[in-house]
Structure formats: structure tokens, C-alpha cells
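Q: Here's a chain of 117 amino acids. Please give me its 3D structure as C-alpha cells.
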Amino acid sequence: MPFQSRSNLLPPAVRLELGARLVEQPERNLGIVVPIPISERVEELAQLLYDEGYGRVSRKEVVGALLLAATEDPSELADLLRNYRNASVRDSLVGQAATGQAASFPLRPPGPRPRPS
């Protein structure tokens, strides 16, 4: 078998202009699933923005904004990861006081949400 350099093992690249708007770039599916409370947290954060007059905000925009704002400091990132791994369902709730021992979460189908009327 002939020798393959490391560059031959890398996937093909896409060239993007550095000054181009991020939200207008080609998309890639992250291929992840998250716990239901985290999914619902994204929903609630998008709804919070809508309720405060920021217009319709997609879950994709909420996740993208949070990822873009994430620290690049490994130590701080490790702290965030540790907090996530140790978080409870209660920690994921948005704008509501947790009462009792359990919380209910709506079962939502995948895909875009209907526009509010």
C-alpha cells in the first residue's frame, strides 16, 4: 500500500470569505441530540426573545449565538462542561420557579415551529 500523507486523510475543504456574514454561510448538521430539558431550554430562550420584541428567533440562531459567545479558554470551557455534567433538570428551567420533585416537558416534533398568530 502506498504511503498516504496526512493531507490525503483530511476531508475536502470549503473556502469561505472571512468577512462574509456567518448566518449566510453553507450549513452543516451537528448530528447531536440533547437531553429534553436542554432542548426545551433552547425553545424557551427563543420564546423569551420573541416575547421581548426581538422577532421570531429560531432555535438554530439561539444555539449559534451561544456557541459563538463561548469562551476559547480551555480552563473556562472545562468549568462550563463540569457545570453541565453536574447540572440538574431544575438548573435548565427558564423563568420559572421549580416546585415539587418533577417537571413536565412538552413532546415537540422536530422541525420549524409554527409562527405565533
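Q: Can you summarize the key feature?
A: The longest helix spans residues 36-51.
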